[in-house]
Automatic annotation (TrEMBL):
Disulphide connectivity of cysteines: C457-C486
Residues involved in Ca(2+) binding: T618
Gene3D superfamilies in alphabetical order: 1.50.10.10
Protein's job: Involved in glycoprotein quality control targeting of misfolded glycoproteins for degradation. It primarily trims a single alpha-1,2-linked mannose residue from Man(9)GlcNAc(2) to produce Man(8)GlcNAc(2), but at high enzyme concentrations, as found in the ER quality control compartment (ERQC), it further trims the carbohydrates to Man(5-6)GlcNAc(2).
Top enzyme class: hydrolase
Catalytic reaction list: N(4)-(alpha-D-Man-(1->2)-alpha-D-Man-(1->2)-alpha-D-Man-(1->3)-[alpha-D-Man-(1->3)-[alpha-D-Man-(1->2)-alpha-D-Man-(1->6)]-alpha-D-Man-(1->6)]-beta-D-Man-(1->4)-beta-D-GlcNAc-(1->4)-beta-D-GlcNAc)-L-asparaginyl-[protein] (N-glucan mannose isomer 8A1,2,3B1,3) + 3 H2O = N(4)-(alpha-D-Man-(1->3)-[alpha-D-Man-(1->3)-[alpha-D-Man-(1->6)]-alpha-D-Man-(1->6)]-beta-D-Man-(1->4)-beta-D-GlcNAc-(1->4)-beta-D-GlcNAc)-L-asparaginyl-[protein] (N-glucan mannose isomer 5A1,2) + 3 beta-D-mannose; N(4)-(alpha-D-Man-(1->2)-alpha-D-Man-(1->2)-alpha-D-Man-(1->3)-[alpha-D-Man-(1->2)-alpha-D-Man-(1->3)-[alpha-D-Man-(1->2)-alpha-D-Man-(1->6)]-alpha-D-Man-(1->6)]-beta-D-Man-(1->4)-beta-D-GlcNAc-(1->4)-beta-D-GlcNAc)-L-asparaginyl-[protein] (N-glucan mannose isomer 9A1,2,3B1,2,3) + 4 H2O = N(4)-(alpha-D-Man-(1->3)-[alpha-D-Man-(1->3)-[alpha-D-Man-(1->6)]-alpha-D-Man-(1->6)]-beta-D-Man-(1->4)-beta-D-GlcNAc-(1->4)-beta-D-GlcNAc)-L-asparaginyl-[protein] (N-glucan mannose isomer 5A1,2) + 4 beta-D-mannose
Entry EC no(s): 3.2.1.-
Positions of the UniProt region annotated as Disordered: 65-101, 115-174
Biased amino acid composition, Basic and acidic residues: 115-133, 155-172
Active-site residue list: E260, D393, E500, E529
Pathway as given in its UniProt record: Protein modification; protein glycosylation
Record's protein name: alpha-1,2-Mannosidase
Organism name: Chloroceryle aenea (American pygmy kingfisher)
């Protein structure tokens, strides 16, 4: 009534005053730092992460800041824990990112005292601009406010260029040291055997001077491409490239294992494309990627283990409709990268769906997963058995690595990883006697077994990588303890080489070491996991003992597995130095992984595959991190 009695002028003045006060209020609220943003993210995170995940607490904020412009620091988060290696004095610092130029242009392998490498760095500016918009969630993961709830695949638009194409600034050569030269010599010896007796075939049989076929796709050659690039082996690389260009044909009526061909062939081609910038490798990667896609046509979308890449049909193994959990959850880095490079989201969609599904299903034990999953029902099978070894190993590795690859935005991956590591601590960690080595055993229907596969030795490296990326410091402590154990799996054995599986003594017995070996487990397949972890540990701590341990291992490979006419061989008996019983097979991962990690371990150049720019797939093929730190 009173309002109506007021004149028009009086009403306008009152309305103006109200409007003025409202604007002042908004301004002062905004200047408090846009609190609604963090509130929104926090509540979203809260909803998704109940109950609280141990180890992911505000008390342990990330030490790695979100990707950001140089000189800015977001909130109270400390600066990135750097890779610890001393930089070679003559390496110029520039805008950070790694690229290795083609070895024949820049990497000069000369005499023992005159070896050099040039590393260059690409333009960073537009990436920085993109990442500037990111904010950090309360748990330290990077969230882009407008993107955090969308699947990454929806963001795919334009095909990406190889990371090498962005390379620009050149740095001074970093000398190659004697240990790296020894790795190059070992590689050349292995390659000689492959070239002389197995060229274009899957694996060398160095004793019978012949070869074995698995998929008939030149597996060793493809697995070794990026190793040759990194080692600077120009001639060998060129020759292998020619074979890829002229002889690598995927239109073949052959069954391949989805996981093995993804990590070795697709991963190898993608990584070589990134390092070399040569589109031949991307074309081949697209071809094999497309041919593997029928594997995902299953009732549950959990892929079959095998695909006929010529016929376009897929199937599980003859005796079961199960797939292996590690296999279906360790193809993601490669297919996601293929989507990013091609602009075709179908690859990423297929593999992301698998991860999302595995995230939701029951049958886990504090984040630990069973070893099998059914392709019809999409449920875990053979419940109750938990291991970090064969059939489960790289599930854990890829949780962390996908999170890193995608710029640390996909919180479900991080949550599953953190929960799983807590599960490891709760159910699988024990200490041996007499040395009290920390080891990862297995759990079968509530019974603990002190058995540890050599495969588990990927774990210290993965834990260290997580800690470097901001996860809790106790992961690094555990990594340090476990790498010591993995080293002891070599050092306590007669040949100084680890067997495939060890059993740890839980009780001290006179005359017994920590490590016991059963006759069926005493073979060595030239596997990489311990050397891989040594590489991460050296990069992040700078502690030379890790290099020394790796050097011992290389010498023992040379002593017991080197075949004089060319190549290295798996052996049947690591306990018998006078007759280690050669098995007559050189696995492709010896060149793809073991020697590559050795070379990187002995390097003091942190930009030789910079771990803030690249993430290694489980076959040691480096793929770019989408939003580098
Ligand atoms: C490789 O093919 C990969 O590292 C895989 O993750 C495990 N097995 C071998 C090496 O041991």
């Amino acid at each position: 009534k009173k309002w109506k009695q007021l004149s028009r002028l009086q009403r306008s003045v009152i309305l103006f005053l109200f409007a003025f006060l409202a604007v002042c209020g908004v301004i002062s609220y905004t200047s408090m730092g846009e609190p609604w943003k963090s509130l929104t993210n926090k509540s979203l995170d809260d909803q998704r992460t109940e109950p609280e995940i141990p180890g992911l607490k505000l008390a342990n904020p990330a030490v790695l800041p979100a990707p950001q412009k140089a000189g800015t620091n977001l909130g109270d988060y400390p600066e990135l824990s750097p890779q610890k290696l001393p930089r070679a004095p003559h390496v110029r610092r520039g805008p950070s990112n790694l690229q290795i130029k083609p070895p024949w242009r820049d990497v000069r392998l000369k005499t023992r005292h005159d070896t050099s490498r040039v590393v260059e760095e690409p333009i960073q500016a537009d990436r920085e601009e993109k990442t500037e918009k990111s904010i950090i969630s309360w748990r330290g993961a990077v969230i882009e406010p407008d993107q955090s709830t969308e699947p990454p695949s929806s963001k795919i638009k334009e095909p990406e260029k190889p990371s090498s194409v962005e390379a620009e600034d050149q740095k001074e050569p970093v000398p190659i040291n004697d240990r790296q030269l020894a790795v190059i010599e070992a590689f050349r010896h292995a390659w000689k055997g492959y070239k002389d007796f197995a060229w274009g075939h899957d694996e060398l049989k160095p004793l019978s001077k012949s070869y074995s076929e698995w998929f008939g796709l030149g597996l060793t050659l493809i697995d070794a491409l990026d190793t040759m690039w990194i080692l600077g082996l120009k001639e060998e690389f060129e020759e292998a490239r020619k074979w890829v260009a002229n002889d690598l044909v995927f239109d073949k009526n052959v069954d391949v294992n989805l996981f093995e061909s993804t990590i070795r062939i697709l991963g190898g081609l993608l990584s070589t494309y990134h390092l070399s910038g040569d589109s031949l490798f991307l074309e081949k990667a697209k071809d094999i990627g497309n041919r593997l896609m029928p594997a995902f046509k299953t009732p549950s979308k959990i892929p079959y283990s095998d695909v006929n890449i010529g016929r376009g049909t897929a199937h599980p193994p003859r005796w079961t409709s199960d797939s292996t959990v590690a296999e279906v959850t360790s193809i993601q880095l490669e297919f996601r990268e293929l989507s990013r490079l091609t602009g075709d989201e179908k690859f990423q969609k297929a593999v992301d769906e698998v991860m999302k599904h595995v995230h939701t299903i029951s049958g886990k034990n504090d984040g630990l997963v069973p070893m099998f999953i059914n392709t019809n029902s999409g449920q875990f099978t053979h419940l109750g058995v938990y291991t970090l070894g064969a059939r489960a190993d790289s599930y854990y590795e890829y949780l962390l690595k996908q999170w890193i690859q995608g710029g640390k935005k996909e919180n479900e991956l991080l949550e599953d990883y953190m929960r799983a590591i807590e599960g490891v601590k709760k159910h699988l960690l024990q200490r041996s006697q007499p040395k009290r080595l920390t080891f990862v055993g297995e759990l079968a229907h509530g019974h603990f077994s002190a058995k540890m596969d050599h495969l588990v030795c990927f774990l210290p490296g993965t834990l260290a990588l997580g800690a470097h990326n901001g996860l809790t410091a106790d992961h690094m402590k555990l990594a340090e303890a476990l790498i010591e154990t993995c080293y002891q799996m070599y050092a306590q054995v007669e040949t100084g080489l680890s067997p495939e599986i060890v059993h740890f003594n839980l009780h001290a017995q006179k005359g017994h070491k920590d490590v016991e070996i059963k006759p069926a487990d005493r073979h060595n397949l030239l596997r990489p996991e311990t050397v891989e972890s040594l590489f991460y540990m050296y990069r992040f701590t700078g502690d030379k003992k890790y290099q020394d341990w790796g050097w011992e291992i290389l010498q023992n490979f040379n002593k017991y597995t080197r075949v004089p006419t060319g190549g290295y061989t798996s052996i049947n008996n690591v306990q018998n130095p006078s007759n280690p019983e050669p098995r007559d097979k050189m696995e492709s991962f010896f060149l793809g992984e073991t020697l590559k990690y050795m070379f990187l371990l002995f390097s003091d150049d942190i930009d030789l595959i910079n771990l803030d720019k690249y993430v290694f797939n489980t076959e040691a093929h480096p793929l770019p991190i989408w939003v580098p730190a």
